[in-house]
Amino acid sequence: MKQRNPVFHMKGYFFFIYFGFGGLFPLLTVYLQDEVQLSGAQIGVITSIGPIVMILIQPLWGMLSDYTKRPKLLLTVASIGAGVSGFTYLFAQEYLMFVLTASMIALFQSALIPLSDSIAMNYTKREGGDYGRIRMWGAVGFAVAVWIMGNASDLFGLEVIFYGFAVVMFAGAFFSRHMPNEAGSAVVDVRGGLKRLMKVKGFPLFLIITFLVYGPIMANNFYFGVLIQFAGGTLAGVGFAFLLAAGSEVPFMRWAGAWIQRRGILTILFAAAFISGVRWIFYSFEPDPVWIYATTIMQGFSIGLFVPAALQYVTDIAPAEVKATAVAVYAAVGNGVGAFFFSMSAGLLIDLHSILAVYLFYGIMTLSGALLLFLLAWRQPHVVKKETA
Fold it and tell me: Of 43, 29, 45, 49, nearest to 230 (Cα)?
């Protein structure tokens, strides 16, 4: 029997995996705060433990993929493992059990994004196509998930998010079995590669920018639901807000490639970071839920453009023999160190003040990253204009 178009299966995989993320993580913090009644500091540890585990484990998945040359098999195993781990939240009662469960999910989750991104990126480079148009199905899944699970939580209770997470992870495992087996050609050599990358003009500064801009973006997935409820919204309202926010990413990811060619990578990155920072600052003034819903579409311009543009910038400036290492380091700084720091700090700020202080802090840090991007664009005008000539 002729296999279906591999692009269809990559789109399906991104849809279901990000459906799982969208259905669990934005509502998990609400569950831990309202149902389990953990403190902000405890919630901060649970939401930040994942990024730390990813920093330690992600390179091992990469090396295992390089060694076996079977990344899609690893994706299948990791998807099933994540689903089973998420289901164990239903049986957690003690704080340490929640920490352990979060660690187990992160163990498997650390394989999902980098391996699937690598497969999609390598496939589109070999066969032609637009990575952003495949990756945007993750944004679709995330948006639909929070809306569906937010409404389901209002009807059946927050425990439903754990059932939903397990089911869609298993669905993702099915799609991963039919994805192309695009093994990366470059070996990730973090120690030697990092030493060389630190000499690449612009790369060290961009790591700082990634920390300042992408860290709050990742942490927002955990704390945006808390903000909605603080402002007087419901669980269904949380789902509606994420539907608008994540859904707005879809068209921007679709247009990202053309806009980067027209305006240049650093120009797009600066605009995305600046708008993201303004959004966080606005939320710190405790707006009415209606205004939060209305401004969620800013996420499309910020995240929908920043994610593909940042990945392209890293792969463009890195020497060919250390491109895989550059992507691994970039992911570790953004998804790992940045997400850990801004998730942990959010929990502490909630205990000391409120969720409003969290978004004020996010805004200041993100605008600092935008300022550094302006400086980087000034220092590298050839990168700004190279695609526009």
Answer: 29
Q: What is the DSSP string of 12-72?
A: HHHHHHHHHHHHHHHHHHHIIIIIS---HHHHHHHHHHHHHHHHHHHHHHHHHHHHHS-HH
Q: Give the number of other CB atoms < 10 A from CB of residue 321.
A: 13
pTM: 0.75
Best-predicted range by mean pLDDT (109-118, 121-130, 215-224, 227-236) = 215-224
Q: Are 188 and 196 in contact (CB under 8 A)?
A: no
3-state class of 92 per DSSP? coil
Domain spanning 6-180+187-385: CATH 1.20.1250.20 = yes
**Angstrom distance (rounded) from CA 172 to CA 70:** 17
Supply 279's token pair. 């959004």
How large is the greatest C-alpha to C-alpha distance in the chain, in angstroms? 61
pLDDT at residue number 12: 92
d(CA 183, CA 72): 9
* CB-based contact 39:350 (threshold 8 Å): no
Domain spans, the chain: 6-180+187-385
